[in-house]
Every structure is written in structure tokens, then in C-alpha cells.
Amino acid sequence: MTKGIIFDMDGTMVDNMMIHHRAWQRKLAELGLDFTLQEVVEQIHGVNDEILVRLFGDRFTAAERQQIAAEKEAAYREIFLPELKLIDGLPQFLDQLQQAGVPLVIGTAAPVENMDFILDELHLRPYFRAAFHAGDVSQGKPHPEIFQKAAAALGLAASDCLVFEDSPTGIETARRAGSQAVAITSSHTAAEFAHFPHVLGCVPDYRGLAWEEGKLVL
């Protein structure tokens, strides 16, 4: 029986991947690289610092790359704010879980500024016992550290928790933590999760999900 639930954030609670792409397109244009949005989608993946090194080599110092990355994330929040909303059905699902007394926690690879932006602008903090971000761990996904810490904040083992994730890397993180998972197909197809035996199901959003007698009904 599931005793707690861990939510990833980007792509899982908010459909924001295209917003990140738009922010990168804007920032790269300022730096002299005129990428189309499709080129950004195809080529700009990974950790911000690694992206900048790959694109610009040693043009920028580490401190300059850190500043550029911070400016890109600020652009992301500016672009997203007028469009900001939870994935369809999630508000109702969170209310169900809260009424059922299911403890909830967030484990995201996002930087703290972006995590706080989502939590505060959408008034989500009352639903969650705790929230962990990229700065809270020494090893990023797919290392299970973030889900282990999230579960521990609930007084649980990760194996007692169900994880909601949107990416194969996040789903692999749940597997390594010993958690069952549900895949939200906001940015990946169900076929990409087919080989993971711990995935209970793949859904496009939270509409139709229900929590009954301590179990998720898909």
C-alpha cells in the first residue's frame, strides 16, 4: 500500500518544457546565436552549464556561465507567469489526496528559484510536507538521492512511496529508489516508458485519476 506520494515538478505538475525552450531561444539570441525554436528543442538539452560549454567552449568563465544561466531561468519565469497553471486535473487530484490524508512531497531537479516560483504563484505549499530541489542533493537524477530524501521527510522509505514523473530519467530515478511510478506523458510518449516494470501506468494528465482506499485508480 502506498503511504506517501512524491511529485516531480517540471513536466509533471506544470507543462513547462516549451517555456524553457523559449527562454533559451531568447537568451541565445542575446549571445549571438539565432536558433529557431525547433533547433532549440532538438539541440538544447542537459544542465545549463554543460549547454553553455558545448555551445561556446571557453568563451565564458564559470562565473559568467552561472550568471547567464540565472538570466535564462529568470527569462523562463517571466515568460511562464502569464500562462502558469497546473496540468489538467491536478488541482482536483491534490484536493483528493489532501482530504484522504496522503502525505505529499516534491522532489525536483529544478533550481530553488524555479521551484519557489511554482509553489508560491500557484499557492501549492499547503499541500506538501516538504519540497526538495537541485541544490538539496549532491547527486542529480537518475541517482535516487532526491527521492530518498523526499521520502525520509515523510518518515518513509522510498519504497513506500509512489512517484509521479514525466521523463525516462525521472522514472529511472524512481526505479533506483525502489518506488513504483506513474508516467505523465507531457513531453515523452508512453512507448518510452514501456520497458520500466515499476510503472503502474502512463497518463497524459490527472483527469480521471482517483484515490480510493489507499490506492491509486488509473
Supply database-style keywords.
single chain; 218 residues; alpha/beta; Rossmann fold; DNA polymerase, domain 1; six-stranded parallel beta sheet; two-stranded antiparallel sheet; 8 helices
Helix and strand topology:
Elements (H helix, E strand, L loop, with lengths): L3 E4 L9 H14 L6 H7 L4 H9 L5 H19 L9 H11 L3 E4 L4 H10 L8 E3 L12 H9 L7 E5 L2 H10 L2 E5 L14 E5 L6 E3 L2 E3 L1
Parallel strand pairs: 1-2, 1-4, 2-3, 4-5, 5-6
Antiparallel strand pairs: 7-8
Question: What is the helix content?
Answer: 40-55%
CATH fold name of the largest domain, please? Rossmann fold
Number of domains: 2
The global form is globular
CATH class category of the largest domain: Alpha Beta
| CATH-level-4 superfamily name of the largest domain | HAD superfamily/HAD-like
Q: What is the H-and-E element order?
A: EHHHHHEHEHEHEEEE
Strand content: 5-15%
**N-end to C-end Cα span:** 15 Å
Q: The biggest beta sheet, please?
A: 6 strands, parallel
Unreliable runs: none
Class based on secondary structure composition and strand pairing: alpha/beta
Q: Measured on Cα atoms, how large is the radius of gyration?
A: 18 Å
Q: What is the arithmetic mean of pLDDT? A: 97
CATH architecture of the largest domain: 3-Layer(aba) Sandwich
